[in-house]
Amino acid sequence: MSEAKKHVYSFEExxxxxxxLLGGKGANLAEMTSLGITVPPGFTITTEVCDLYYxxxxxxxxxxxxxxxIKLNELENKMGKRxxxxxxxxxxxxxxxxxxxxxxxxxxxxxxxxxxxSVLGLATKTGNxxxxxxxxxxxxxxxxxxxxxxxxxxxxxILENVKDTKGAKFDTDLTTEDLMExxxxxxxxxxxxxxxxFPQDPLEQLSGSIxxxxxxxxxxxxxxxxxxxxxRGLIGTAVNIQTMVFGNLGEDSGTGVCxxxxxxxxxxxxYGEYLMxxxxxxxxxxxxxxxxxxxxEEQMPEIYRELVDTCNRVEQHYKDMQDxxxxxxxxxxxxxxxxxxxxxxxxxxxxxxxxxxxxxxxKDEAILRVxxxxxxxxxxxxxxxxxxxxGEVIARGLPASPGAAVGEVVFTAAEAFEKAQSGLDVVxxxxxxxxxxxxxxxxxxxxxTARGGMTSHAAVVARGMGTxxxxxxxxxxxxxxxxxxxxxDKGIVIKEGEFITLDGATGxxxxxxxxxxxxxxxxxxxxxxxxxxxxxxxxxxxxxDTPHDAAVARKFGAEGIGLCRTEHxxxxxxxxxxxxxxxxxxxxEGRTKALAKLLPYQKSDFVGLFQAMDxxxxxxxxxxxxxxxxxxxEEKDIYDLAREMQxxxxxxxxxxxxxxxxxxxxxxxxxxLAVTYPEIYDMQVTAIIEAAxxxxxxxxxxxxxxEVKPEIMIPLVATTKEFSMLKERAVKIVEEKxxxxxxxxxxxxxxxxxxxxxxxVADKIVESGAEFFSFGTNDLTQMGAxxxxxxxxxxxxxxxxxxxxxxxxxxxxxxxxxxxxxxIAIQKGRSVKADLKIGICGExxxxxxxxxxxxxxxxxxxxCSPFRVPIARLAAAHAAVKDKLKK
Amino acid sequence: MSEAKKHVYSFEExxxxxxxLLGGKGANLAEMTSLGITVPPGFTITTEVCDLYYxxxxxxxxxxxxxxxIKLNELENKMGKRxxxxxxxxxxxxxxxxxxxxxxxxxxxxxxxxxxxSVLGLATKTGNxxxxxxxxxxxxxxxxxxxxxxxxxxxxxILENVKDTKGAKFDTDLTTEDLMExxxxxxxxxxxxxxxxFPQDPLEQLSGSIxxxxxxxxxxxxxxxxxxxxxRGLIGTAVNIQTMVFGNLGEDSGTGVCxxxxxxxxxxxxYGEYLMxxxxxxxxxxxxxxxxxxxxEEQMPEIYRELVDTCNRVEQHYKDMQDxxxxxxxxxxxxxxxxxxxxxxxxxxxxxxxxxxxxxxxKDEAILRVxxxxxxxxxxxxxxxxxxxxGEVIARGLPASPGAAVGEVVFTAAEAFEKAQSGLDVVxxxxxxxxxxxxxxxxxxxxxTARGGMTSHAAVVARGMGTxxxxxxxxxxxxxxxxxxxxxDKGIVIKEGEFITLDGATGxxxxxxxxxxxxxxxxxxxxxxxxxxxxxxxxxxxxxDTPHDAAVARKFGAEGIGLCRTEHxxxxxxxxxxxxxxxxxxxxEGRTKALAKLLPYQKSDFVGLFQAMDxxxxxxxxxxxxxxxxxxxEEKDIYDLAREMQxxxxxxxxxxxxxxxxxxxxxxxxxxLAVTYPEIYDMQVTAIIEAAxxxxxxxxxxxxxxEVKPEIMIPLVATTKEFSMLKERAVKIVEEKxxxxxxxxxxxxxxxxxxxxxxxVADKIVESGAEFFSFGTNDLTQMGAxxxxxxxxxxxxxxxxxxxxxxxxxxxxxxxxxxxxxxIAIQKGRSVKADLKIGICGExxxxxxxxxxxxxxxxxxxxCSPFRVPIARLAAAHAAVKDKLKK
Lengths: 887, 887
Hints:
Helix content of chain A: 40-55%
Number of strands of chain A: 33
Oligomer: homodimer
Strand order of the largest sheet of chain A: 14-24-23-16-17-18-19-15
Low-confidence stretches of chain A: none
Distance between the termini of chain A: 42 Å
Structural class of chain A: alpha/beta
């Protein structure tokens, strides 16, 4: 017989580094045991057994069973008690514990080992028959529910019935006899429902419980929790078999939970709560109000001191804030669990920074302690947590842009703008938004849409502006004419002017006004971000189209603009008129005349951006969307426009029809517009360089000159010649302007890499003069994977849940597929120009996993919406620290 | 001073292999000179000078001028005459001549060297003053028009005016004095219009003419001709300066054109025509009817024998049919030009085959002699060439599918179907076609659409069916209600039931009925194709959706089906009802029930295909288009369908709205449908394998069993898991059916590579079980280059004319960009499975350049529409022969 694999570890045999094998709980119990901390003895069945359990058709192999029997025997010897012993039974708990925390999602069995005989022994031994029978009652109920799958309600009915009969208000009012009666009726119920009795054999109880815990690894709740919390790559849960200790053995017993620091604020103060004469579940049940753990100092000063000392020791050992469970059994302190405590973003930052101050961890470690995604919480207005629990959730949509918004409902962008002008807070409610709504969106505190996904227009724009947005809320029905918002299946109708509240971080929509809290960027935040900036290797820029956005982004640490989308500028105020005039012109002269009207606006836009960026590079993307986006779609709007432009409605309609595209994503847009109508880019390039010259020249009044670094970006390039033609034209204009102004400005002309073909001929594009690449990963994903962002919502969810894509490729860059295109483009591009500047400006640029990818692939910078800049900075630092660790 | 570059070559210095440098004409004149054939002496200015001419701002460098002067001097010495000599002037012609033939597109000057003095000398020397003055008149007119850019009409007016005054009917009625008068008035006109006189200095005439010829290289006609005829990569035209000889010096003089074989039929008979006492332009002008060249045998037997001998010598020398120009000057034969003759497709085939028979060329050379694209002419019904010249062209569209069609105009597919059923010939006229029109398209002799490009639905389907189609005809306005077809700007209105004729090879639309000719696949065609099949390395399959198409393709030599599009099968007859029922079902049960109705239809489709292919592989693509394509779009049709399906109109409209996609190309289609609704592919796979079993089993009556090789192709795969999931499902169904039938069938399951991402993870897709790849180059181009086939028509033309794309990437595969994706996929795919079967099934599969690409990249086969199968076979042979030549 070959050496059997070790499947079961006593707490003495493990340590904290064995989480993958023993689960978090098992590894920590083992670690504390080896630290000499008083942990009730026990052993752990490994996560590998869980995997084996499923592979063997949900059974335990005989090898595993044998190993469990051996460890159980050791435990019995150690404790001097036997499981099921009629006089002095050993009682154990059976708990789940995976490498990652799945709180409350899996099953637990307590008091295992009791039966009709041993309950009597326990009663005698403890001198507390009521305790013994209560413990037995709990075991039968728990086992019946969890292992034997009798309805939980069946037990509750019996319990309530007996309480009613006996006039008992609380469980604690029940006598020993009452409990005996309950146990009797529980067992009868089990027999009635399942046709088999509650097992009296403790070993049968044990194997049933172990099977149930392994089985709970794949119950719906646990699977869903792992999905929602992005917990992947685990093979299963471990099972911990641990000697029971009891906090309910009298007034010298108790149980509690404590944190070595405050998990909400991060404050370095011992924190927690406890109940005397109680079991853990009583604390949770909330029947009695627990006391703050500090009160224990008075009640049991020695125990308190021991607890504090132990907790500190464990924190020092783990070098992180600990979340611990303890039980005091007849004056003796046991630690039942210790783990790194969950915490709010604010607490995470504070704790990480203070642990560095205390010399416990390094700055690098501090950086890794804060999840970049978590920072989102810190950067936006939030709902008051108390107010939130009291609010009425009337609908749920996608958490499209974080933050909280309270305002009057309005149904059009124009109303939003008007009401906001008069000082009101409004929430813009639309079926979906379009570029024409941009002013109204800017004016709103929040945006709610009925349709569209995480990357819909509303979502993208809102994130860019840092405005709270709940998108794709299928629960609402919008009647724009009646100006009402109806909640599906609920009969709630909200009229224009009535208040709603949005939580953009959860996608919840509340009726009425809820309280909010402003974000606080504490000093610790600044400290941590400073460390992140020291260590990170890649730059972080922002996607910003307005000086306001640019200023916000600077505040968040952006080092330049990686993407300024000029089309947004085309919608404001009177500009759209000139744009439409341009589109409706039939010749170059007409277009040039209309574009000339836009030039001063564009120039002033760029002046503002250059000033806001104060010497940092500003990458400006020339016009990208198809022209039909600038024309109205509704019959009435077409009619109005025709009158305004003094053209025939038929002509206008024909023009709109002519511009219609079956697949606008793959249509006449980006640099293709400029191949057909070069005058458009000519105007934009002129505006950029004139603005740059104006800003770079010292002001005649104040004498101040601002350095400018314009980077002109040509979108949707697919071929070498598109780029070279358009670059040549642009350079001519720029050089003429610079020569005329007698000034030197370091400018660059580069391209978006967003068409797969461009990635494949990247070397040739660089040869033809591209000075930088910026990966437009939204379009690169759309074209590379053949997925329309606007349409794929219908099936992408299923694609992710079936594991076809690991993540929604519009949220997290598809590193395998689209990443390969990027790698090809970089390799080819840099083979021609080794120092080719490479950035990313798609929505992915602020997503931590993608930022790490960019770091690994040698990007110079990532660019993201202003509110994601700190996230990207921290993610970049994570990547750099992880790199160091590998070396 | 460094060695000057040689820019001018006398005919003695060149040879036939110097076409790039001397142009075709120059090289051939040199070659003939060195063969000892009587060619009027002269010299050639190289094509490099043309390039230099443009680079020097349209001037000749002094170096070039010097070299011309030297060669002119040599020529004068050789001829014993001087240019412009007052007594015995040398006259020369100045002609263009590029490496490729641009017939009549560039400029020519004849009789150069005449002026007010030398015309008198020529008169005296020839004793023919009228000839001398007529020659001078021609020079002044030609030079005035071509070099000095005086309106051609100005000269014509003067000529007509003098003819009227003198009562002369023909030019030949003019006397010497009349001609002198005309010359006087011509010169006065030139002076009046241009302010400078007609140059009397022959050297000025010469340099003016050389400049004009170089300038004509880039005139509109020449540029357009090169574009249309796909003539690329030339640096310019050469200029030939050649001693004039005259066929109009009396009845012992003459001029003619001859072919060594018949250029229409290829028959090996001397062919051509001539005129005595005439110049070349007289033959062209058609004033006198030329005689067949064979008549010369009687008229001038010695000259005839010399001509035939010379022609045969030249043909033997060039080993190809020659097109030659000759002049007889006072009893002496001169050869002015010889070149490989243009010929019809039929002639090309016959000549190539017969040259092999004559031992002049090898089979491989014969293969290269026929342009695969030319074969198109041979495979379709054609317009009678005579009838065609007499027909009235009322509109022009894109030559979307070759052939000729004559029929009554109908405006709906339903009418087309009905009328065709009653035996009428119809031409279906639609704004654009949609899959619903398929029956009507099948029933029509030809299809005419107002919108859509070369790869629009109408074009693709028509080519597939071998039906004549003119697409995107912007000249027509269709009024479906009034049932009229109006020709824009012409006031022609054609009503339903009136006749039109289409030429699908040219895109012309004719009014009324024109005569047609059936294709003749002669024995020579079969012989040549046999040689092609012997030498080619890659297989040729067909894209066919019906047994009829499959049978046609077999006739054309297809070796299997590379693409059967199952969606076409969903529209026929009652099937669409079941399809719609499936789409409108809200659950698996409903869908499965509806699909069950389709199963027998699908199965019988496949039975037909397997039988038609008789042992060849049949690749069946599972359902590809988005479901909304199967639902009606028009309000009335929606209403009808709702009634038919007994569903609420609102519900139906909501379903249609729900299925609407912004970018259907990137939407919910292909294997994505099967991820969401696996029952669809389940039905199709069941139908395929049940059909295969039925065909493979021996017939209970005749005992015959047909071998079947089904290849199931999963479309739009982008990720490994899509493929592995769907393959697993398919294999399960197939294996169960095979086991139940107790039969073994060799089937394969593979995938289209049409999403760029799939190409990038091709290795993993093969690892997950793909047994073949078929490149869907239409979609691969759409996604890879970000071009919507339906929309790009608007700017692609400009893209090609500006050289951004060398060819329309939907017609000729973009080998640089999309080709790179293909190379990556093949390299990755075969790295896992060295014998991975690789094919192409996009529209490109029948395009010769793409076929050569596929050959080079190691494809196993190409697949194309039935009528392109011979083209692909020949193109594949070209590739193989070229390969051999490289070795």
